[in-house]
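Students often ask why inverse folding is considered easier than folding. One informal answer: many sequences map to the same fold, so there is more than one right answer. In these notes we will look at a single instance of the problem. The structure comes first.
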């Protein structure tokens, strides 16, 4: 008797929940309407928003290039030249993406041409290892997260050395005071 009463109450509660979700049997209830709801935002971004987006993209590009430059073996002068080449490369690539092509094959061909010709002059100025790394960057094989991990490790080592040196200096001062 208790089991049958429990099952009846459970069935009534379940049906009530189902009817609230669907708006009755077969209807479109609140939950069904919310699932299919599409936000309507027809406003174009303002000039300020576009300028902010452009600024953030430039900052991110500079950060990405600087992270890549830390992996190279070149001297500062060569790194500055590489930085300029990479910046102009990404600007040209962005222009190619903004151009309307009849076929995507034409865009791919233009990007491939850019990849093959943009860094030709640079091959004479930098080492082969750096050129290989540059080609990896162009093809998308550069792992920026790995570089950031290495930077963090170096910072930790520097902090550790500073703390160790500071502790040693403090111990030396204590020894001098004790003497």
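Output (designed amino acids):
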């Amino acid at each position: 008797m208790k089991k049958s009463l429990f099952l009846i109450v459970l069935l009534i509660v379940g049906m009530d929940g189902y009817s609230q979700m669907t708006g009755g049997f077969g209807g479109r209830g609140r939950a069904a309407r919310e699932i299919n709801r599409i936000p309507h935002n027809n406003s174009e971004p303002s000039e300020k928003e576009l300028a902010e987006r452009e600024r953030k993209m430039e900052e991110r590009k500079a950060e990405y290039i600087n992270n890549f430059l830390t992996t190279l073996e070149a001297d500062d002068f060569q790194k500055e030249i590489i930085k300029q080449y990479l910046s102009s490369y990404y600007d040209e690539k962005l222009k190619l993406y903004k151009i309307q092509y009849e076929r995507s094959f034409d865009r791919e061909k233009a990007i491939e041409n850019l990849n093959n010709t943009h860094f030709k002059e640079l091959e004479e100025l930098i080492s082969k290892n750096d050129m290989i790394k540059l080609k990896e960057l162009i093809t998308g094989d550069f792992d920026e997260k790995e570089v950031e991990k290495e930077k963090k490790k170096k910072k930790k080592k520097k902090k550790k050395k500073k703390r160790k040196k500071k502790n040693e200096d403090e111990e030396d001062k204590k020894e001098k005071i004790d003497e």
